[in-house]
Write a structure and sequence with these properties.
- By secondary structure, the protein is of the alpha+beta class.
- It has a single domain (about 1-215), classed as Glutamine Phosphoribosylpyrophosphate, subunit 1, domain 1 (4-Layer Sandwich).
- The chain is built from seven helices and ten strands.
- It has helices at about 25-30, 50-60, 65-75, 125-135, 140-155, 185-200, 200-210; strands at about 1-10, 15-20, 30-35, 40-45, 80-85, 90-95, 105-110, 110-115, 165-170, 175-180.
- The strands form two sheets. Strands 7-8-1-2-9-10 form a six-stranded antiparallel beta sheet.
- α2 (about 50-60) packs across α3 and α4 (about 125-135) runs antiparallel to α5 (about 140-155).
- It is globular.
- About 45% of the residues are buried.
- The mean pLDDT is about 95.
């Protein structure tokens, strides 16, 4: 009951995922990304452990296909899992275990891979890929959201969607964008709205981390110094 896409921006090196489902907390369970590494999607009777493991395999030098093969081999219950991987070079791999219910499918495109299960049309992943590929010059977040909307327009799920997430990794160890919607009657619309609010702040929040002096005015008079406390 989930459709998703992992993608890469060849121009900037950003990698990210977008996902939605009719169950709560899809962003916490299914979406995984790391800067300079790639992304992993894990869904359908989801095993969230496979996300960090997949990123570690990519970080260790595996490409998308070898990372996916290792994830499948590591999981005694892989027949239940649906997975997708994209590495930092844009190579992709996907897997649907034999117990993943239809309609289910996978689709690969330039710098992207989409997967879906228990949806109204097996064409949904291909439609998501087409939407992602439409404007390579656009911001990766806009391309990912366009793919998510295409999946919805293409039929979506049988049950009402309630959660959605957008996760992008770029340059730093922390997420560049990590937006999540839960328990919402229109989670895709809410995610679009969240992105429109967050977009102007993305670089500001990075600068606050790496160079706060560039944007902050020290207290007047200057603070006496740092403080710390502990408890016994």
């Amino acid at each position: 009951m989930t459709f998703s896409l992992a993608g890469r921006c060849a121009r900037t090196g950003m990698t990210g995922v977008v996902v939605t489902t009719s169950a709560p907390a899809v962003g916490a369970r299914c979406a995984h990304a790391a800067a300079g590494v790639g992304c992993v999607l894990t869904q359908n009777v989801t095993d969230p452990r496979l996300g960090p493991l997949g990123l570690e395999l990519l970080r260790g030098g595996a490409d998308a296909e070898r990372a996916l093969d290792a994830l499948i081999a590591s999981s005694p219950h892989h027949v239940w899992r649906q997975l997708a991987v994209i590495d930092r070079h844009g190579n992709t791999a996907a897997f649907s275990g034999r117990y993943v219910k239809p309609e289910r499918n996978e689709a690969h495109g330039r710098d992207c891979v989409a997967i879906a299960n228990i949806v109204r049309s097996a064409d949904i992943p291909a439609q998501m890929v087409s939407a992602f590929e439409r404007d390579p010059a656009a911001h990766l977040a806009d391309r990912l959201l366009a793919a998510l909307r295409a999946g919805e327009v293409g039929g979506g799920e049988f049950k009402p969607l309630v959660s959605a997430a957008l996760l992008i990794a770029w340059r730093e160890a922390f997420a560049y964008i990590d937006l999540r919607v839960d328990s919402d009657p229109n989670p895709i619309g809410a995610l679009f709205r969240l992105w429109s609010e967050y977009h102007p702040l993305t670089e500001l929040y990075v600068t606050r981390v790496i160079d706060p002096d560039a944007i902050s005015i020290p207290p007047d008079p200057p603070a006496a110094g740092a403080t710390r406390s502990t408890s016994m």
